[in-house]
Design a protein that fits this description.
The complex is a heterodimer of chains A (279) and B (449). Chain A has 279 residues and is of the alpha/beta class. Helices cover 49% and strands 13% of the residues of chain A. In chain A, strand 4, helix 7 and strand 5 form a beta-alpha-beta unit. The two termini of chain A are 22 Å apart. With 449 residues, chain B is α/β, with parallel strands linked by helices. Chain B is built from 17 helices and 15 strands. In chain B, helix 11 links the parallel strand 9 and strand 10. The N terminus and C terminus of chain B are likely disordered. The chains are: A alpha/beta (279), B alpha/beta (449). At the A-B interface, helix 3, helix 5 and strand 6 of A face helix 1, helix 8 and strand 12 of B. The complex binds pyridoxal-5'-phosphate (PLP).
Chain lengths: 279, 449
């Protein structure tokens, strides 16, 4: 079984959802961003509290992040200007694995294509990465990545959206390995005051597509979650809760690594208080 | 072959269907759809509606009526013998897209996409714009058809094309200056995509060039190909033969594809795209995407682009806001790779020399974008000599560029007028004596404007 799926299953065995933290490499600089990822993984574990993130989405900086809102844009822009690239990302992958979480790379497609798809897959696997999430790559355009990820034994996570037709839900889940990323709101990344109803509906439709196609995959929800209460709400219907902008904000606000750790603790508590676990 | 010399001009969208793209929007290895899944439904809807609309006689009639009665098509072909004296004596014909309503070729595409917007029942349009011509055209069509309109424009471009910002606002559009990244067209496109994915239920994205995800490159081409369809007949009718070469400037590539498409099957006709070389391709400060770039993915499609070793887009530079873009439409990348079209760089200085020449020799003030094509024909004419018959797409007029050009040439209302590069002391164009725009206050003139 894939590393991502295994970790999400382990959370499920504890009757909770998995916590998935996104942080971009290179903000405020490479070392500090890696320290923030490690803090997100540790959460309150050292202080006797619950742990932190089960999985870290390691963000590859990109000059044209069309799916991201202002917070992530601002952080990533700094990293792009500093020349942060996939070599630094691979270092973060090793650090996250060493901290005990499952590292998965989150990248717009062009940095991977530029690095070389096969070379990326080989180097990512060697660094201990589980696979990659590709927000602007749909399976229809992914032939090279499907082959390279198969050859390297990597997971590949594609996105589904509220606007996806049933047919596209089916073809997308068939291309996924690890989990399915349900991008729950129509829009760009950023925190939202409330969890949209669209999220639960999308998860239900995605689970139907999974049942129809006979693949066995967890469904994780991202876009908008910012605190433990919202995490608990999403944990009520999803297998994993993905949090991005809220993790980046403490870094932008100068709260640093400790701000990231506090947030992770709050979110980790949230995913353990799922409102009503799925059958 | 698309048409014969004797067939009467008649409205039509696609006389000879081009051999590409394939059903999923690929031009050879280029094109496709590299967008978030959330946008796929909207792109599918647009594709299906467009495919239905282009064979619907009511649409074909309505589109033709608007082109004739509103835009003023067909646009004329003008021979420019005074200018041609500076082109090695070759004969030069201009296709006059500058005479269209709103002042450029952009209106051709926008009228088609605005009709499509109404057909799919959306009430709001958004657009990106660089020079402001596509924004003005979209604001115009929105006013005409009762749609609400938001235009994203890089902050840098709102300054150098201030006239067009005012025009868009007069037409009732909201203009949002974009302050991220290079603050030019590339970042305006990013913001427009973010708006679209958020508001896709009510909003259609009227894309301004032959780039972006499928179906935009094919659809915008089909709306722009009227330029070449008309020009091919016009040239055949007046000359009894086809031109030796067809030239056009290339930003995203819509005016170039517009004039090339009818000639693609004519193997004897050279197709030449002129890219903005800014300070010179060798300086790194340029926008010559095919000349100086590599294949990659940007703004929803695979094509040539300016990128670094990490796959980050490199900021482009050009005096011309409409060409200041680090990407290019996928069909151009394909035409380049199969050897059907050539792409050549033209520096700011060369373009401004050609700009001045056309003003003084023919009484036509071109858009600075189009002046890149004029610089290309000056060079090509000298290569080919007096036998050559050359057709140039004059994609737009220069009203919007008066400020930038005045600065470049040191005109305006200063007491001591420095005639500036490209002009002698009597403010006559100095042929061949090109011009180092660092002479203008030591800075990129485009950035000062
Ligand atoms: C007059 C004119 N020509 C050319 C262009 C470049 O666009 P394209 O390459 O799509 O024709 C522009 C863009 O703003 C323009 O205004």
């Amino acid at each position: 079984m894939s590393a991502l799926q295994q970790r999400i299953a382990a959370a499920r065995d504890e009757d909770r959802a998995a916590l998935i933290a996104y942080l971009p490499v290179g903000y405020p600089d490479v070392d500090a961003s890696i320290a923030a990822m490690v803090a997100a993984v540790e959460g309150g574990a050292d202080a006797g509290g619950v742990g932190g993130a089960d999985i870290v989405e390691i963000g590859v900086p990109y000059s044209d992040p069309g799916m991201d809102g202002p917070v992530i844009q601002q952080a990533v822009d700094v990293a792009v200007r500093a020349g942060v690239g996939l070599r630094d990302v691979l270092r973060a992958v090793e650090a996250v694995a060493a901290a005990g979480a499952v590292p998965v790379v989150m990248s717009y497609w062009n940095p991977i294509e530029r690095y070389g798809v096969d070379r990326f897959a080989t180097d990512l696997a060697a660094a201990g990465g589980a696979g990659a999430i590709t927000p602007d790559l749909i399976p229809d355009e992914a032939a090279a990545w499907l082959a390279a990820s198969d050859a390297a034994g990597l997971d590949r996570v594609f996105l589904v959206a509220p606007s996806s037709t049933d047919a596209r839900l089916r073809s997308t889940v068939q291309a996924c390995r690890g989990f399915v990323y349900a991008a729950s709101t129509m829009g760009v990344t950023g925190t939202r005051a409330t969890v949209s109803d669209a999220a639960e509906r999308l998860v239900a439709r995605t689970r139907e597509a999974i049942a129809d196609t006979g693949v066995l995959l967890p469904v994780c929800v991202g876009l908008g979650v910012s605190n433990g209460d919202q995490a608990a709400e999403v944990a009520g219907f999803a297998d994993g809760v993905i949090v991005g902008t809220a993790y980046v904000r403490p870094l932008l606000d100068g709260e640093g690594v400790e701000g990231v750790r506090r947030l992770s603790e709050d979110l980790a508590r949230g995913v353990r208080q799922r409102a009503g676990a799925p059958a | 072959m698309t048409t014969s010399a004797v067939s009467p001009p008649e409205p039509r969208l696609a006389p000879a269907a081009p051999a590409w793209p394939d059903a999923t929007g690929h031009f050879g290895i280029f094109g496709g759809r590299f967008v978030p899944e959330a946008l796929i439904a909207a792109l599918d809807e647009l594709t299906a509606a467009y495919e239905a609309m282009k064979v619907d006689p009511a649409f074909v009639e309505e589109f033709a009526r608007l082109q004739r009665d509103y835009t003023g098509r067909p646009s004329p072909v003008t021979e420019v013998p005074g200018f041609a004296e500076h082109c090695g004596g070759a004969r030069v014909l201009l296709k006059r897209e500058d005479l269209n309503h709103t002042g450029s070729h952009k209106i051709n595409n926008v009228l088609g996409q605005a009709l499509l917007t109404k057909r799919i029942g959306k009430s709001r349009v958004i657009a990106e714009t660089g020079a402001g011509q596509h924004g003005v055209a979209t604001a115009t069509a929105a006013a005409l058809m009762g749609l609400s309109c938001t235009v994203y424009m890089g902050e840098e471009d709102t300054r150098r094309q201030a006239l067009n910002v005012a025009r868009m606002r007069l037409l009732g559009a909201e203009v949002i200056p974009v302050t991220t990244g290079s603050r030019t067209l590339k970042d305006a496109i990013n913001e427009a995509f973010r708006d679209w994915v958020t508001n896709v239920e009510t909003t259609n994205y009227v894309f301004g060039t032959v780039a972006g995800p499928h179906p935009f490159p094919a659809m915008v081409r089909d709306f722009q190909r009227v330029i070449g369809d008309e020009a091919r007949e016009q040239v055949l009718e007046r000359e009894g033969r086809l031109p030796d070469a067809v030239l056009a400037c290339v930003g995203g590539g819509s005016n170039a594809i517009g004039i090339f498409t009818a000639f693609v099957p004519d193997a004897g006709v050279r197709l030449i795209g002129l890219e903005a070389a800014g300070d010179g391709v060798e300086t790194g400060r340029h926008a010559a995407t095919i000349t100086g770039g590599t294949p990659g993915v940007l703004h929803g499609a695979r094509s040539y682009l300016l990128q670094d070793d990490n796959g980050q887009t490199i900021e482009s530079h050009s005096i011309s806001a409409g060409l200041d873009y680090p990407g290019v439409g996928p069909e151009h990348s394909h035409l380049h790779d199969i050897g059907r079209a050539e792409y050549r760089p033209v520096t700011d200085a060369e373009a401004m020399e050609a700009f001045a020449l056309l003003c003084r020799t023919e009484g036509i003030i071109p858009a600075i974008e189009s002046a890149h094509a004029l610089a290309g024909v000056m060079r090509l004419g000298r290569e080919l000599g007096p036998e050559a018959l050359l057709l140039v797409n004059l994609s737009g007029r220069g009203d919007k560029d008066v400020e930038t050009a005045s600065r470049w040439f040191g005109l305006g209302d200063r007491e001591e007028v420095d005639p500036g590069p490209g002009m002698d002391t009597d403010q006559q164009p100095t042929e061949g004596a090109v011009t180092n725009h660092e002479a203008v206050d030591g800075q990129d003139a485009g950035e000062q404007a």
